[in-house]
Amino acid sequence: MNNVYYGKLVFELSKPGRVGYSLPKSEISGYSLNELPEALQRQGKTILPECDELTVVRHYTNMSNNNFGVDTGFYPLGSCTMKYNPKINEELCALPAFNRHPSTPVEFVQGSLKVYDEVQKTLSEISGLSRFTLNPYAGAHGELTGLMVIKSYHQQRGDNARTKIIVPNSAHGTNPASAAVAGFKVVEVKSLADGTVDVEDLKPLLGPDVAGMMMTNPNTLGIFERNIPEIARLVHDCGGLMYYDGANLNPMLGVCRPGDMGFDVMHINLHKTFSTPHGGGGPGSGPVGVRKGLEHLLPNPQVEKLADGSYTLQCGKNSLGSISTFLSNFTVIIRAYAYLLSLGKENVPMAGKLSVLNANYIKECLRSHYELPIEGLCKHEFVFDGLRPEFGGDHHDDSHVTTLDVAKRLLDYGFHAPTIYFPLLFHEALMIEPTETESKDTLDDFIAVMKRIAEEARDDREMVKTAPHHTPIRRLDDVKAVREPKFTFKNL
Fold first, then answer.
1. How far, in Å, CA of 75 to CA of 53, rounded?
2. Which secondary-structure segment (H or E) carries 383?
3. How far apart are CA 168 and CA 175, in angstroms?
4. Are residues 288 and 157 in the same domain?
5. 3-state SS of the chain: helix, strand, coil percent to 5?
6. Distances (CA, A) of 166 to 161, 184, 297
7. Are residues 232 and 263 in contact, defined by beta-carbon separation less than 8 angstroms?
8. Is residue 202 within 8 Å of residue 231, measured between CB atoms?
9. Burial class (CB in 10 A: 0-12, 13-18, 19+), 193
């Protein structure tokens, strides 16, 4: 691209003496930098680029055009449900009526409290659980909160021997991490060849020291866990609780409910399932729901509807405590509310069904070119194990075309790469999740490109193994980037 700004750092555009804007002199008389404590004063020279305003504007505009997001292209990131975020949601959460200081007295934020209450009640209905808190800031924060509920449940009954959480070996990495942070010992249960939990491997792990078991359904391979009723019975019989990781709730919407399967606690990712912004560091939201009998353990504060129809904030004395300031990322909650109202009760199930249809359509169209390790119907996502051998995916050949090579080559065609090398059950895992918001035209384009890459891998292996070729940054040395990271312009 013939553009002086393209691919350059702002420091590379800097010229000594160029000024973009000069701040006016302070109108506050007597103010001096020396009034700042010496410990807070910069001792060295500030390293800033010297650019005119137009150069800065063009630089960052070009940078923004390099960003990839769901508004610019297909984002088939497995286990993350990168669905389109309707712009009406953004308009509604920006309304001045919702722009209130969090310390505003409750009588002046009745509308906001009503939104909070109606969202938690809607989530309760969708999930089959009794009550939700919307206070957690993110999915992993919700996991931690749910595990704290489980811990508080056992501790308040005086059952302090329950120190273990069982986690499938196909689980999201946050599951064992959250359990460890909550103070539990993580016990791994194996999976069967089809990716579902091995019930026979689970049985000897159960006992009076088990606090609970975490599961995702559909699991990380996109397979529905059909043995959950039996698993829930076994865990409950030993005195443990069942935890549902709601990261993969999307295909279940309006079709089946975790509470009906026997789960006691769960978290939901509003920033996945209910169409609020996802990625880029936030914001997120990870509401936690519980079955009847556990409501008193949810964190404070809690929104309550009074007999006269007004709303208030209450703090329960048996609550596990506070896990966030005020009522968390409230604008994310508003976005989810707008999405739920837009769909309505009658159309929520369509989201799940269309996500399943789209995933199975891609899977069946690409199985001739990519290795499919698990046969049968998937739900919202599925996993390939790299290319088929006839297309250069022979794992026994050291020069075979890897999943990483395929992912890099996808960038040349304008598609974001799917999740790769996760879950760890397959050597060349490539996980694809199209979501319900993608049209058949987009899916067909993606399928055609994936087939083209497979054919390139067969006919011109070097082309794929050296990709990407048309991005601002070419193939990086990943090992060197990890071992010798350079974070500032000064040490480049």
1. 34
2. strand 382-385
3. 9
4. yes
5. 40, 10, 50
6. 15, 10, 21
7. yes
8. yes
9. exposed
User: To which H or E segment does residue 299 belong?
Assistant: none
305/372 same-domain check: no
pTM: 0.90
Task: Give the tokens for residue 250.
Answer: 């999307």
- 35 φ, ψ (degrees, to nearest 5): -75, -20
List per-residue pLDDT tens for the chain, 492 residues long.
Answer: 557 777 788 999 999 999 988 877 777 766 565 577 888 888 888 888 999 999 999 999 988 888 888 888 999 998 888 888 899 999 998 999 998 898 999 999 999 999 999 999 999 999 999 999 999 999 999 999 999 999 999 999 999 999 999 999 989 889 999 999 999 999 999 999 888 999 999 999 999 999 999 999 999 899 999 999 999 999 999 999 999 999 999 999 999 999 999 999 999 999 889 988 776 666 889 999 999 999 999 999 999 999 999 999 999 999 999 999 888 889 999 999 999 999 999 999 999 999 999 999 999 999 999 999 999 999 999 999 999 999 988 877 778 999 999 999 999 999 999 999 988 889 999 999 999 999 999 999 999 999 999 999 999 999 999 999 998 888 988 899 899 988 877 755
What six digits make up the tokens of 445?
């384009």
**Within a domain: 461:** yes
On whether both 221 and 290 belong to a single domain, the answer is yes
Whole domain around residue 199: which residue ranges?
A: 87-342
* Residues 44 and 90: beta-carbon distance below 8 Å: no
With 0-12 / 13-18 / 19 or more C-beta atoms within 10 angstroms meaning exposed / middle / buried, residue 33 is exposed
Class of residue 37 by CB neighbours under 10 A (exposed 0-12, middle 13-18, buried 19+): exposed
Peptide bond into 37 cis (omega under 30): no
Strands (E), 99-189: 131-133, 164-168, 185-189
**Domain stops at, among 307, 342, 377:** 342
Question: CA-CA distance, 415 to 451, in Å (whole number)?
Answer: 14
* Residue of 17, 284, 345, 321 lying closest to 140 (CA atoms): 284
36 and 120 in a common domain: no
